[in-house]
Design brief:
By secondary structure, the chain is an alpha/beta fold. It has helices at 36-49, 86-93, 102-113, 180-188, 192-216, 231-245, 265-274, and strands at residues 3-8, 12-19, 22-30, 58-62, 65-67, 70-73, 97-101, 122-127, 131-137, 140-142, 155-157, 162-163, 220-224, 255-258. This is Sugar kinase.
């Protein structure tokens, strides 16, 4: 029986029906605002879309720290905090529901069916409204006591207590007065200021990746999220910055790959994890 995977973002919700290592349905719904009422309406819309399909279980990826199936920290979607919507969603979809952090669902999908398939030790980074992270060690999702992988909240500027997320997410691009998508379009048209913005972003990301490689020594880093769509505009600077800071000479050319499952990775990962 298929499973339903839902990936909740601050501006959109992606959902897939997953069975036999393939998506039977893969759709996206715009989220007008990151609020409970708006998300509730999206859940209603999804239930109507899949009402003819019986699913065995539902996995939901959420943009925040998930402990004991409750969101306890969500700076980019604060209305999720302490919101126990699981019973209501189970009733709506007529199936058991499990909740996960979205970045952890993302990296698990890429290991199971995407860019890191066959790899045992992987770090996944989601580049979007925030900077999410997930870790796979020895083929299994590593959670520590439950929340390991919060890369975006590493402090990388001690005097100002600024987080990695301030340098490698949509927050970084605010100083340019345009969204990452707008800057990507400008870069595609040859705009030098936009290209320089992505070069600077790439250097920041490379520094963060070097820290991860020095600490965890993964086989591959996988990049997802909306900003990863501009991969070609920042990846060279990312690789160069990482190589300059990785201490092991044999790891300086760490493989840094763009997600193979695209915008569906988080929803696919939630669907796969829901069955485990």
């Amino acid at each position: 029986m298929p499973t339903l995977g839902i990936d909740v973002g601050a501006s959109k919700v992606r959902y897939v029906i997953w069975e036999g290592n393939q998506a039977l349905l893969d759709e996206e719904v715009k989220l007008p605002a990151p609020g409970r009422e708006e998300l509730g309406r999206v859940f209603q819309e999804i239930s109507q879309k899949i009402k003819e399909t019986k699913v065995s279980t539902v996995g939901v990826g959420l943009p925040g720290t998930v402990e004991e199936e409750m969101v306890t920290y969500a700076p980019n979607f604060p209305t999720l905090l302490e919101w126990d919507f699981k019973p209501e969603l189970e009733k709506l979809l007529n199936a058991p529901v499990r909740l996960f952090n979205d970045a952890k669902a993302f990296v698990f999908a890429e290991v199971q069916a995407g860019a890191a398939k066959g790899k045992q030790n992987v770090v996944g980074l989601t580049l979007g409204s925030g900077l999410g992270g997930g870790i796979v060690f020895n083929g299994a999702l590593y959670l520590g006591k439950g929340t390991a992988g919060e890369v975006g909240h590493e402090i990388v500027d001690l005097p100002n207590r600024r987080e990695a997320e301030d340098f490698a997410s949509a927050k970084f691009f605010q100083k340019f007065g345009k969204s990452p998508d707008e800057l990507r379009q400008l870069a595609e048209d040859g705009d030098q200021t936009a290209k320089q913005a992505f070069n600077e972003f790439g250097k920041n990301l490379g520094t963060i990746i070097a820290n991860l490689v020095n600490l965890l020594d993964p086989e591959v880093i996988v990049l997802g999220g909306g900003i990863a769509g501009a991969y070609d505009f920042f990846i060279e600077e990312t690789k160069k910055a990482a190589a300059g800071l990785i201490v092991n000479p044999n790891r300086k050319n760490i493989e840094i790959k763009k997600a193979a499952l695209g915008n569906s990775a988080g929803a696919i990962g939630a669907a796969i994890l829901a069955k485990i």
